[in-house]
């Protein structure tokens, strides 16, 4: 098992090598993230002399996202937003499969799986952090309460 | 964990693809508003100038811990099944 692990690690490292080399060499390459920031000034909704400002960030697919309230009320900076793969690349888990005590795949009490644990409306549920990191959001329901479990 | 209910509506929350200072920014399918957990505040704040501008989705307490510890407190707890994690026995 140990030897296989080392071989796998070597393969993974070697696979990344050309990526690292080419990233370092090309200083003009565009890193993943917002390719442009648009600030649009709009005075449609103001009654006084000062125009209201709408701030949008544009992702790599060309889609615009409104961050106006984040900017004006919380001082968020458009350039600190970074874009990864896109909203459809990481779909939320909408129908999580929950294992109960007695189910064949239910983990042993002694397993040190890292989880996010929640108890609500009499129901205790654990969400493995490995799964949450990959899918980011689980849309769930505890009784009548709709919730989002996120990393 | 956050409520997805606001003004009698149920929102579907998902990752927007954006992060802000290493924290994922969520959005809802219904209005495409962006939602962000503002540091020092409870819940998710709508940062878009949409119908939910400045509104919050409330937060429920959650624990980051190990399954073995969680089970001591909640012996009847369910756990989400992960298809792609290999358990090495």
Low-confidence stretches of chain B: 85-89
**What fraction, in percent, of the residue positions of chain B are helical?**
under 10%
> How many beta strands in the DSSP annotation of chain A?
9
Taking all Cα atoms into account, the compactness measure Rg of chain B is: 16 Å
Q: Which parts of chain A are unreliable, with pLDDT below 50 for 5 consecutive residues or more? A: 17-35
Sheet of most strands of chain A: 3 strands, antiparallel
Helix content of chain A: 25-40%
Strand order of the largest sheet of chain A: 1-2-3
Quaternary status: heterodimer
Helical run tally of chain A: 3
- Distance from N terminus to C terminus of chain A (CA atoms, Å) equals 31 Å
Number of E-state strands of chain B: 10
H and E string of chain A: HEEEHEEEEHEE
Structural class of chain A: alpha+beta
3D structure, described in words:
The complex is a heterodimer of chains A (151) and B (89). Chain A is α+β, with helices and mostly antiparallel strands and 151 residues long. Chain A is built from 3 helices and 9 strands, in the order αβββαββββαββ. In chain A, the strands form 3 sheets. In chain A, strands 1-2-3 form a 3-stranded antiparallel β-sheet. A two-stranded antiparallel ribbon of chain A has the order 6-7. In chain A, strands 8-9 form a two-stranded antiparallel sheet. The two termini of chain A are 31 Å apart. Residues 17-35 of chain A have low confidence and may be disordered. Chain B is mostly beta strands. In chain B, the strands form 2 sheets. Chain B has a 5-stranded antiparallel β-sheet, with no helix packed on it. A two-stranded antiparallel ribbon of chain B has the order 2-3. In chain B, strand 4 (13-20) and strand 5 (23-28) form a beta hairpin. The longest helix of chain B is centred in the C-terminal third of the chain and has 7 residues, at 67-73. The radius of gyration of chain B is 16 Å and the shape is elongated. The relative contact order of chain B is 0.18. Chains A and B meet through helix 2, strand 4, strand 5, strand 6 and strand 7 of A and strand 1, strand 4, strand 5, strand 9 and helix 1 of B. Strand 5 (98-99) of chain A pairs antiparallel with strand 10 (78-80) of chain B.
């Amino acid at each position: 098992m140990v030897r296989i692990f080392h071989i796998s690690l070597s393969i993974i490292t070697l696979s990344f090598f050309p990526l690292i080399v080419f990233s370092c060499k090309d200083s003009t390459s565009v890193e993943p993230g917002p390719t442009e920031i648009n600030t649009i000034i709009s005075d449609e909704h103001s009654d006084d002399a000062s125009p209201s400002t709408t701030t949008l960030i544009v992702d790599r697919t060309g889609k615009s996202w409104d961050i106006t309230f984040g900017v004006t009320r919380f001082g968020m900076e458009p350039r600190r937003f970074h874009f990864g793969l896109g909203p459809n690349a990481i779909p939320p888990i909408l129908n999580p499969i929950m294992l109960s005590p007695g189910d064949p795949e239910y983990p042993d009490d002694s397993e040190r799986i890292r989880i996010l644990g929640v108890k609500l409306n009499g129901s205790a549920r654990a969400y493995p952090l490995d799964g949450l990191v990959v899918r980011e959001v689980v849309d769930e329901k505890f009784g009548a309460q709709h919730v989002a479990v996120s990393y | 964990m956050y409520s997805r209910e606001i003004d009698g509506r149920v929102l579907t929350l998902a990752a927007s693809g954006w992060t802000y200072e290493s924290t994922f920014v969520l959005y809802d399918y219904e209005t495409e508003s962006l939602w962000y957990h503002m540091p020092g505040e409870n819940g998710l704040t709508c940062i878009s100038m949409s119908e939910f501008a400045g509104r919050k989705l409330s937060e429920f307490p959650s624990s980051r811990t190990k399954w073995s510890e969680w089970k001591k407190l909640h012996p009847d707890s369910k756990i989400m099944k992960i298809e792609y994690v290999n358990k090495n026995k």
